[in-house]
Amino acid sequence: MELTGIKAFLKKKNVNITVQTYLIDALGAMAFGLFASLLIGTIFATIGEKSGIEAFQVIADYAKSATGAALGVAIAYALKAPQLVLFSAATVGIAGNALGGPVGALVSTVIATELGKLVSKETRVDILITPGVTIISGVLIAQFIGPGVAKFMDGFGMMVKTATEMQPFFMGILVSALVGIALTLPISSAAICIALSLDGLAGGAATAGCCAQMIGFAVLSFRENGVGGLLAQGLGTSMLQMGNIVKNPRIWIAPTLASMITGPIATMVFRLTNIPAGSGMGTCGLVGPIGIYTSMGGGTNMWLGILFVCLLLPALLTAVLGEVLRKIGWIKEGDLTLDL
Question: What is the DSSP letter of 238?
């Protein structure tokens, strides 16, 4: 009877303790928070640096400084937080991001938001209790776990980057494939790359994998979805195909194989590097190529790398592999159709 009461209370408070809620919905919302602050700030900073227009740099500084708050609000919004909890989450996000990076912001905001939801509108002094519980719990959690989380993520990211420098061929394949798959899954590859501070050659390999998925699916499904699908996936996200992948996982083969080819080309032939903010974005809003430009600063090798690794090779490889899969019957008419 007591368990039933707890379940009823949690349902009333809209607290859903599931993997979908915390590792998919909340993590996915992180990407929007990052894009609305750190990522767009990075783009403006690059524009300001290359154009000499100081206003862009000023805007970039403000946008980047809002990263923690944007993360907190985005995560709380994904958890369907009531207003006072939502607004209080900005403070929690700032503390979590400052002490533990994006993952610190994720953990502290998730816990604080759920606790805030539990006490929301349960007292006559809700305007004090709800933000108080949310902010105090969130900041304490950030202080408790933040430094450890940051150290672990930095260490793991450094291991990946060092391994890529030492074994650019094999790690180029692995990083490209895994980050590309993460981009298409309903999780945030951008948040993962930023949390791991994935830059350098590893960042270039990650970008290759993301571009292979986005450009690959855009080209592979062109006959079904036309120009609208081409733009939605090529400049938006390959995540749009997730429903079709569940129905027929074989449609994922061509873009993934393409990423395993372009990854080592990025690391060994063109030596492409990227910044963490661009590594997991691919061609979404052209953030990936912009990140490469920000990291490398120009040069013939860089431009050829962007052209071939981010655009031409993913399109060509996926188109060829896709035709093979269609001929053997693994991809059938309508398997890639999107409801746009």
Answer: G
- Classify residue 332 by its DSSP letter: -
* pLDDT tier for residue 195 given thresholds of 50, 70 and 90: confident
Which of 55-69, 167-181, 186-200 has the least mean pLDDT? 186-200
For residue 26, what pLDDT band results from cuts at 50, 70 and 90? confident
- Encoded tokens for 64: 């980047």
Residue 63 burial class via C-beta count within 10 angstroms: exposed 0-12, middle 13-18, buried 19 and up: buried
Q: Residue 1: what pLDDT?
A: 43
Whole-number pLDDT of residue 200: 94
CA distances from 264 to 28, 201, 209, 321 (A): 28, 10, 10, 18
Residue 208 region by backbone torsions, left for phi larger than 0, else alpha for psi between -120 and 50, else beta? alpha
Residues 35 and 64 in one domain: yes
- Boundary-marking domain end, from 154, 184, 206: 154
The closest of 197, 5, 183 to 101, measured between CA atoms, is 197
CA atoms within 13 A on the CB side of 97: 25
Last residue of a domain, one of 120, 154, 188: 154
pLDDT for residue 2 is more than 60: no
Q: Are residues 306 and 175 in the same domain?
A: yes
Residue 264 lies in a domain: yes
